[in-house]
Design goal:
Number of helices: 4
Oligomer: single chain
Order of helices and strands: HHHH
Helix content: over 70%
Strand content: under 5%
Largest sheet: none
């Protein structure tokens, strides 16, 4: 996947997540998850862009490590939404899968960058 394609993909992940969170119930628990999920999902794209501007391999790997952490955290919040019954699984599953796919792509990119250093 090209860097531009991944930029678009991480941005779409953030946008889809923002739309999904607007469907969450107005309970205190859901509001907490909404804030956390919005923060982590939008951080995926922002940090991916920052990684692409890295001045060194180490800086790239560090930023991509943040992308991996934030994508994984987003996956956790999405799982929690499903497990807590806040939204029907069918409404959340594809976004949860996207978080997993982003994690896999980013993990591979970090590993490849490590071999090049």
């Amino acid at each position: 996947m090209t860097p531009d394609a991944m930029k678009r993909r991480t941005k779409q992940f953030a946008l889809r997540t923002l739309r999904l969170t607007s469907s969450l119930p107005q309970t205190p628990e859901a509001q907490t998850i909404r804030r956390q999920l919005c923060r982590s999902a939008t951080s995926v794209g922002a940090n991916y862009r920052a990684a692409q501007r890295g001045r060194s391999t180490n800086e790239f790997k560090a930023k991509m490590g943040i992308v991996l952490e934030e994508a994984d955290e987003s996956g956790f919040w999405l799982e929690l939404i499903i497990d807590a019954g806040m939204l029907p699984p069918g409404q959340v599953t594809s976004l949860r899968q996207e978080a997993d796919e982003i994690c896999a792509i980013v993990y591979t990119a970090i590993q490849r960058a490590g071999k090049q250093a």
